[in-house]
Amino acid sequence: MRRDRLHAFAIVTAALLTAACASSEEWATWKEHPSHFASGEHLAFSLRNRSGSTARVTREDIALARSQGWWGKPITVSTEQILEK
Amino acid sequence: MKSRLLAGAAAVALALLFTLGGVGRAAAAPPDSALLPLDQYTSEKGRELGRKYAEELRALASGIYHCIPWLEVQEHSLGFYRPKHLGGGDSRYLSMRAFIEQDASPDFARLTVANQAAAMYARYVAALLKRMARSQALTADPGVEGFTIILEWLKQSARAASDRPIHETVAVFIDKASALDFLAGRITPRALADRAQIRLWDGETSLENLRLTRLAEDDFVSTYKMKDYQLDPRVTCP
Asked: At B108, is the pLDDT very low, low, confident or very high (cuts 50, 70, 90)?
């Protein structure tokens, strides 16, 4: 019985340590390579493919691509819960 | 049957025509819809600030629209709101809520929600605060008591195509004294994060208030250039 408890304790401790290490590594990845979370590239990509050739992408193109790519009302906190007008 | 197909094709062609025509006609300026309309303020103080600094708000919206095109300032989110957690009184903070468009990334997805929020804080809060506090008249106005920056992004998780998207949201409240200390270089980004109130949501679920234990240095906003993006020639980005 006591051995079972020790065993369980060891497993939980190992899991927690593993999670903590993973978190540190993941954080380091973010810190060292922030630019690979490229923003907006997929919008430009979809526009380029729409025309079949590489094109310059204007801000209006992005607004249009965004409005066409919208796929439903998101589940998110409402502004009214945070701020008052 | 044939006429039905032709009618369908014509409808598609017309829709395409209107859509493509819309691109050409679109104005270079961002729509005013980012600004909270004056008639929606619930106090005269808020409304007066909205009226007085309308041009500053438009300039702020325009700067973000053109220079940080992957950020979408939400409709009616830019204005002098009162943070709810401050309780009584009519403390008005210059506030904005923006959706961050970013590509799916396994590295980002592996971070905990708190670490994702910390990363977003590091990436965007100082950059946006600098833009929000650009007007000296606005920052010197005793009616403006602070700044609220609400950032949200698409939660990266496995989901069915029919599922509604879930957003993760971080709200950062910074009193004016702390903001001005930071912008003048009197306090560090670390100290600013310690003084700020930071709240976090996963979808509609409120998580614990966030204390940033680690704060990465991140110059993404000032250095990242979106590939093939053509900046409006009338606009200059700092």
From this structure: confident
CB contact under 8 A, A74 and B103: no
Confidence of residue B223 (pLDDT cuts 50, 70, 90): confident
- pLDDT higher than 50, residue B17: no
Interval B209-233 mean pLDDT = 83
> Which residues 67-106 of B are in CB contact (within 8 Å) with A?
69-70, 72, 74, 77, 79, 81-84, 95, 97, 100-103, 105
Contact B164 A37 (CB under 8 A): no
Bridge-based pairing state of the strands B79-83 and B144-154: unpaired
In which domain, by residue range, is B202 found? 30-223
ipTM topping 0.95: no
Which pTM was predicted?
0.76
**Which residue pairs, CB below 8 angstroms and at least 24 apart, start in A62-68?**
A62/B69, A62/B229, A63/B26, A64/B19, A64/B22, A64/B23, A64/B26, A66/B72, A66/B101
Query: Has residue B181 been placed in a domain?
Result: yes
The residue of chain A with its CA nearest to that of B27 is A60
Per CB-CB distance under 8 Å, the chain B contacts of A36 are 105, 107
The H or E element spanning position B198 is strand B197-202
